[in-house]
Design brief:
120 residues, alpha/beta, Transcription Regulator spoIIAA, five-stranded mixed β-sheet, 4 helices, 25% strand, globular
């Protein structure tokens, strides 16, 4: 399952798991599902964790992701990502330049969830 809402520390986190995608079409479909969740969610305090482990984004995917980041980023409370290394680090920096809120990279899911649900 690529998109799910999980509970951690008593809070809800939207988990977008691109690691389960077999190709770029599936990644784009999952991205659009996440955008619909954002559009339909009443809160402006969405916590999101994206998993890019063994996933590779195309130019089309990154273009769409950046546009959603611009359009829907104000609804993000905090954002985290796992599975980022090599070229994906450069792509994350590019995304963070246009997104309303930066996405923080972490080594594993537990570290990311702890960050997302911690008190500031």
């Amino acid at each position: 399952m690529g998109l799910e809402v999980i509970k951690y520390n008593g809070q809800q986190v939207l988990y977008v798991n691109y690691a389960v995608c077999n190709d770029q079409r599936e990644m784009l479909d999952l991205l659009h599902q996440a955008a619909k969740y954002y559009q339909n969610h009443p809160s402006d305090q969405i916590k999101i964790l994206s998993d890019f482990t063994d996933a590779y984004a195309s130019l089309e995917f990154m273009t769409q992701l950046k546009q959603y980041g611009k359009d829907l980023g104000t609804k993000t409370d905090r954002a985290a990502v796992i599975g980022i290394d090599g070229l994906k680090e450069i792509l994350l920096k590019g995304y963070n330049m246009v997104a309303k809120k930066p996405t923080m990279p972490f080594r594993n899911k537990i570290q990311a969830l702890t960050y997302l649900t911690s008190v500031r």
